[in-house]
Amino acid sequence: KITNILHKIKPVEARLEKIGKLKNKSKVILDYAHTPDALKLSLMNLREQFSNSNISLVFGCGGDRDFKKRVLMGKIADKFSNEIYLTDDNPRNEDPSKIRKDIKKGIKKNKIHEIPNRKKAIQEAIKNLNTGDLLLVAGRGHEKIQDYGKKKIFLSDKKIILQSVNLKNKLLSNNLKLNIINEQSKSKISNKLIINDISINSKKVKKNDIFFAIKGKRIDGNKFVYEALKKKSSLAIVNKLNRNYPLSKQVKVKNSLSFLTKCSSIFRKNINAKIISITGSCGKTTLKEMIGLALKKISKTTFSPKSFNNKFGVPLSLFNLKQDDKFGVFEIGMDRKGEINNLSKIINPDVGIITNISYAHSKNFKNINQIANAKGEIMNNIRRNGTIVLNMDDSFYDYHKNVALKKKLKVITFGIKNKSATTKLIKIKKINNKFELFIDIDNVSVSFYSQNKNTSNLYNILATLASINLYVDIKNLKKNIFLNFKTPKGRGDISKIKLKNKKIFLVDETYNSNPLSLKTAIE
Concatenated DSSP letters for 259-320? Predict the structure, then answer.
């Protein structure tokens, strides 16, 4: 009964009460906290719930009482908030400037806005809220009268917040990506602008897409702005403005790739989609496709195209997620140490998967242990209370499991040989031109059809089930969900070729060229 009614419970007025709704996903919280303990508790609660958010604070202290608490509240504000708007509370018969001076003794931050007029302080704080930011207006809560001793002013923090939120929303777009681009570039792009997808390839730009002109080592995307705009791209993000094209269609930034990366990271922090991220030496793209297509049959899902797994492809794929997507599936590749850490930091996945460890990109590593360590970097950036999915048959399983446990991640496993895996293959039955796979998932028996019983395909199916089992009731999936799955070209796909009177099977492993992919192809 409690569970069913809990979502209907509303907070006590002005006790950590969320006021209004901003289009850029920022939040304004009103709280009566006017003592050091209360202010600290409020800020700590918000910091715990919104660990990714910048927290701004509007506060002051009352006059004629509790003189010693002022410096303490200044210290608390300094420690737990990113930005401080120092203003008047209820000065009563005391000089307001003296109260603020006492508070400032506890504040070391340079980022302090001293605005005596409380109404203006709240308005300014809300005006400056960027995507995902959080503002706490503390001290007066539900009070309607501000006390200046002989002078009493009608002042409702709640009313000012609502007015300010409505005003700010008029300047914001319903499209979160456009708000982020505006904020980060400090531009004034029309909030009515229609944007669809993000592209870094002028040849593939469509109407209302945003073109990011990336300057690479060999190709400078800034040279193709005209081509993108000619195809009715709504906007071009450039490193340098070109006077031959409409300036209203160009946004100049210092580095368009860094800007894309920053924007996609902010976007990720402010959407509700559950993100699954895949790394490993082999099978990343195929597994990404399989998980993405399986989830797409169930709910709104975006997954990265082809092998978009590097410093260009990851932020691009992430920024192309839809605001209302339930799931996002991305792969992360690497050439050297540190790359997976950097890319997974942008994605900040809820679930990470390590497919296997082999000698891929071995030229940049002394031994396979270094490769395993580099792949394990994905665990540095999985969200708190997140999950890592590991191949229990892989020789580095124990190593990665120990790393995961130290990071307090939930460990889920899949395997064919190791029957201790949480998702394991029990048996395979041939039925006409297909195979029925009998699988145990957390002691629940299920079966699915597959076109083949290739080892790599079996591992991908097991990894897919292990991952989506976190969000989906596996028993409700159709038995043929994997039946028509086609392996991406060049990744172990098998073609039947007729040559005169001969039938030849061609196993295409042209995408990969490492020992494991060759071994898998032969097997």
Answer: HHHHHHHHHHHT---EEEEEE-SS-HHHHHHHHHHHHHTTS-EEE--TT--STTHHHHHHHT
Distances in Å between the Cα of 69 and the Cα atoms of 44, 93, 101 are 18, 18, 13
Rounded Cα distance, 165 and 171, in Å: 10
Instruction: Pick the closest to residue 275 from 485, 410, 468 (CA basis).
Output: 468
Could you tell me the pTM of the whole model? 0.92
Can you tell me the distance from the alpha carbon of 459 to that of 353, in angstroms, rounded to the nearest whole number? 12
Give the model confidence (pLDDT) of 347-401 as tens digits. Answer: 999 999 999 999 876 788 999 999 999 999 999 999 999 999 999 999 999 999 9
Query: What are 419-454's pLDDT values in tens digits?
Result: 999 999 999 999 999 999 999 999 999 999 999 998
Would you say 100 and 60 are in contact if contact means Cβ atoms under 8 Å apart?
Answer: yes
Classify strands 17-18 and 27-31 as parallel, antiparallel or unpaired: antiparallel
| 124 touches 117 (CB < 8 A) | no
CB 140 within 8 A of CB 32: yes
Q: What are phi and psi of 54, to 5 degrees?
A: -80, 130
Q: Determine phi and psi for 15, rounding to 5 degrees.
A: -115, 100
pLDDT beyond 80 at 241: yes
| Angle formed at CA 128 by CA 126 and CA 132, multiple of 5 degrees | 80
pLDDT of residue 276: 98
Tell me the one-letter amino acid at 436: E
Q: At what angle do helices 455-468 and 284-296 cross, to 10 degrees?
A: 50
DSSP H helices in 407-442: none
Q: Which two tokens stand for residue 443?
A: 């002691």
Contacts of 460 (CB under 8 A, 6+ apart): 283, 286, 287, 290
